[in-house]
Amino acid sequence: MSIKAVFFDIDGTLVSLKTHKVPDSTRRALALLRSKGVKVFISSGRPFMAIDNLDDEVFDGYITVNGGICYYEGEVIHRFPIPRSNVESWCRYTSENPVDCCMITEKYIYMNNISQAALDFFDLLDFKTPPVMSIESQLEVPVYQIVGMIPAGKDSEAMAALPDCIFKRWHPSFADIIAKGSDKSRGMQALLDHIGIGREECMAFGDGGNDIEMLDFAQIDVAMGGSGQEVTAHADYVTDSVDEDGIWNALRHFGLI
User: Fold this and answer.
1) Of 37, 10, 41, whose CA–CA distance to 194 is shortest?
2) Is 214 helix (H, G, I), strand (E, B) or coil?
3) Band of pLDDT at residue 207, cut at 50, 70 and 90
4) Rounded Cα distance, 150 and 152, in Å
5) Distance CA 257, CA 253 (A)
6) What are phi and psi of 102, to 5 degrees?
7) Alpha-carbon gap, residue 30 to 222, rounded angstroms
8) What is the mean pLDDT of residues 71-94?
9) Closest CA to 3 of 201, 221, 200
10) What percent of the chain has pLDDT over 90?
11) CA distances from 129 to 30, 50, 95, 110, 178 (A)
């Protein structure tokens, strides 16, 4: 079966965490895929309004906030928010515990507080620091993802406040929190169903814990060089890092370019 769609994580996969740029070799690889009629998709933990580091690269669709909202040709085709009861519980938890968090809605991002942990997070991803607002004041707005600045080892305590959610940790200092039943593989299925392509016709690239379901779902799954063992264990192939032409090299290895 030929590959008709390729899904790419952004940070650490398409975009270097060192330069915050898409390598030239990756740009050439994307152009070659498009010239062969292969659909190219983003599959990221970022919300759509924060996908601002791909320069002029064009993609057919976007899985955002780890599957919470999916777009195809500019239209939303799938939404899966965190239950409001969990947002209310999280609001109570953070009012009693010093946990900074980034709350992601469809239209905007806000923080409940800005500490050094939060600043480190935004610096790592080259994000603009969002405004500070209380969670309580925004309860009417659906939340699709929470990024909790939760040190490793403290997840179980925080998870008790979010019983209908799952934690996807891709860094020791913070975790992506999304609704149970929502992950990158669910977003992939929604997009593939929409365009009539089977999962056996797709390929995926990732490097973090929030990419595992995506890698398990794809017919061909590639982990970037430098990924942790928990990620590489789910990959058919481990390529070089993003800074060492990993995407180009893997696509050449599988004969797609």
Assistant:
1) 41
2) helix
3) very high
4) 6
5) 9
6) -105, 120
7) 16
8) 96
9) 201
10) 77
11) 30, 11, 21, 9, 21
Cβ atoms of residues 166 and 178 within 8 Å? yes
Q: Where are the beta strands (DSSP E) in the chain?
A: 5-8, 39-43, 61-64, 69-72, 75-79, 101-104, 109-111, 145-148, 165-171, 174-179, 202-206, 220-223, 237-238
**Extended strands (E) in 74-139:** 75-79, 101-104, 109-111
Using a 10 angstrom Cβ sphere, with 0-12 exposed, 13-18 middle and 19 or more buried, the burial of residue 2 is exposed
Helices (H), 182-225: 184-195, 212-217
Round to the nearest angstrom and report the end-to-end CA distance of the chain.
16
Q: Rounded to a whole number, what is the largest CA-CA distance in the chain?
A: 55
Residue for token digits 């390929």?
203
pLDDT digits (tens, 9 = 90+) for 117-135: 788 878 887 778 889 999 9
Question: What is the distance between the alpha carbons of residues 117 and 86, in angstroms, rounded to a whole number?
Answer: 23
User: pTM, whole model, 2 decimals?
Assistant: 0.86
What one-character DSSP code corresponds to residue 18? T
Length of the chain: 257
Pairing outcome for strands 174-179 and 165-171: antiparallel
Q: What are the C-alpha distances in Å from 170 to residues 39, 150, 202? A: 26, 12, 23
Residue 232 is predicted with a pLDDT of: 96
